[in-house]
Amino acid sequence: MMPATLLPGNYLLRAVKGDKKSNAMNISVLPAVVIASATCIDGMATITGRGFSQYLEAAGSGTDLNMDFNVGKRKRKTTVTRDCSVQTWTDTQITADCGRCGDSILVDSIFGKDAERLPNPNTRR
Fold it and tell me: Is 102 domain-assigned?
C-alpha cells in the first residue's frame, strides 16, 4: 500500500513478503497543475499557480498556453482558440502575449492541464 501523502518526485517501489523482495520499480508522483489566478490586460495574460513545470518551446512538447474566445450570439455562438506567445514560464507563474483578452485560458503542462475563466469581459481591457 502506498501512502496518499507522497510528495511529488521519483520513488523506487518493491513488494516484500517475508524474506523475499521483488525487483525495484520506478514510480513518479506528479504534481497537480493548478491555476490559482489568471488576469488579462491589453492582451497580456498573467497566470499564477503551481505545477506548471518548465516551458519547452518545441512543437509537440506538451507545454502550451491557449486563450479561448466566445464569438457570435445565441445559436451561432462558437469558441475560437488562439495560441499565446509565452514571455516567461516558471513552475508558479506564466506571462504571455495573447493578442487580446478572451474568455478563458488553458495551461497545458508536462504534468497535466488546467483552465480558468477570465474576469467578466466588460471589465477586461
Answer: yes
Domain presence at residue 2 = no
Q: Is 84 exposed, middle or buried (0-12, 13-18, 19+ CB in 10 A)?
A: buried
Of 40, 46, 48, 47, the C-alpha closest to 101 is 40
pLDDT digits (tens, 9 = 90+) for 111-123: 899 999 988 654 4
The CATH number of the domain holding residue 76 is 2.60.40
Residue ranges of E strands in 1-125: 9-13, 16-17, 20-21, 25-29, 34-41, 44-50, 64-71, 78-83, 85-89, 93-97, 104-109, 112-117
| 27 within domain boundaries | no
- Residue 79's Cβ-side half-sphere holds a number of Cα atoms within 13 Å equal to 8
Residue 97 lies in a domain: yes
Decide: pTM greater than 0.85. no
Domain count, the chain: 1
